[in-house]
């Protein structure tokens, strides 16, 4: 029985359509794979990864015309041409002013594919793109305005190569993409691009997921991170599970228009540890804790906006000041402290301050292991970053130890034969 034969689409009580297991799946076992219906490489990774297969390699060949798309070989270039031709001449014409968002680029490719491909694709064995939920009627004015901006950009950058449906159909399609698009990430969870994986989109959300989605190039792979029995619904997670129940459900309502009723959300059993306060002589006043949580949520949002216009040193100072303030009440294991510590680590990596990045990373890893599930990609990527930092700073023993911890998780989440596993083993040998 091959992957995908052990699962089926079904009507999930209270959730609409979903996916369930028809047989037992062991920990780490592959349930199914799904090639991307269509995908776009992020502009920051041009030249590092092939635009067609997302393979990471040196010496990629440029598109002879626009010089902005890169490929492994002639086969990849030919494979990508039906999609790249939507952009190639516009890239040449606009030069540096060619800047549609990834959502616009992805939507343009869906429109082009739907024009030429009338049959059900290998990505749509259980769910078709046309069946995607849009939640358009639930969007607020701000979200509808953003969609109008995307439609304007689509017309601006793609008018020569695409013939569009009416405005209402485009609004609906953009809303579908916003709800059902996926971010492809590498082994350190760095952003590689955006894609549509219809069969993966069939799975419902749980904050206690029993599968994990990883990527092999532009193919999504879904593996069990818990034992799954025949008749069990297959659940993935739509969001980062670090945060407390209220934050997770705010995010789910904002992006996907539902609240989660999984075991974790019903019991809130991890919330106390996630919101841990410092050990003080007198227990903190509940109002002070609520006020600090409000401050923390505000600073997370403020930092997200500040990334677009502040310098790295200003952002690092913002992290330090917020951690100092939160640290008067919150323990270092508190998830809001961890959020800002992780941002500080990212800034240090960007600035190539390896010692600084290591200092922050060492504060993060043990709390991550406590808050996340055993086979979390967030924990694996943190061990990997630490391992690579140790190795770069010639702390080889610590480096090997950290890389082994990353591998132990990745061999379950990515599968033992994934190219990332081979790369990390090679790093350890050197």
UniProtKB/TrEMBL annotation:
Residues 50-88 form the MYND-type domain. Its EC number is 2.1.1.354. Keywords: Chromatin regulator, Cytoplasm, Metal-binding, Methyltransferase, Nucleus, S-adenosyl-L-methionine, Transcription, Transcription regulation, Transferase, Zinc, Zinc-finger. It is found in: Cytoplasm, Cytosol; Nucleus. GO terms for biological process: methylation. Signal peptide: none annotated. Pfam families: SET (PF00856), zf-MYND (PF01753). One of its GO terms (molecular function) is histone H3K4 trimethyltransferase activity. SMART domains: SET (SM00317). PROSITE patterns: SET, ZF_MYND_2. SUPFAM superfamilies: SET domain (SSF82199), TPR-like (SSF48452). GO terms for cellular component: cytosol; nucleus. InterPro entries: H3K4_H4K5_MeTrfase, SET_dom, SET_dom_sf, SMYD2_SET, TPR-like_helical_dom_sf, Znf_MYND. Gene3D superfamilies: 1.10.220.160, 1.25.40.970, 6.10.140.2220, SET domain (2.170.270.10), Tetratricopeptide repeat domain (1.25.40.10). Its main location: cytoplasm. It is an enzyme of class 2 (transferase). It catalyses: L-lysyl-[protein] + S-adenosyl-L-methionine = N(6)-methyl-L-lysyl-[protein] + S-adenosyl-L-homocysteine + H(+); L-lysyl(4)-[histone H3] + 3 S-adenosyl-L-methionine = N(6),N(6),N(6)-trimethyl-L-lysyl(4)-[histone H3] + 3 S-adenosyl-L-homocysteine + 3 H(+). It comes from the Eukaryota. PANTHER family: HISTONE-LYSINE N-METHYLTRANSFERASE SMYD (PTHR12197), N-LYSINE METHYLTRANSFERASE SMYD2 (PTHR12197:SF193). Protein-lysine N-methyltransferase that methylates both histones and non-histone proteins, including p53/TP53 and RB1. Specifically trimethylates histone H3 'Lys-4' (H3K4me3) in vivo. The activity requires interaction with HSP90alpha. Shows even higher methyltransferase activity on p53/TP53. Monomethylates 'Lys-370' of p53/TP53, leading to decreased DNA-binding activity and subsequent transcriptional regulation activity of p53/TP53. Monomethylates RB1 at 'Lys-860'. This is [histone H3]-lysine(4) N-trimethyltransferase. It comes from Pyxicephalus adspersus.
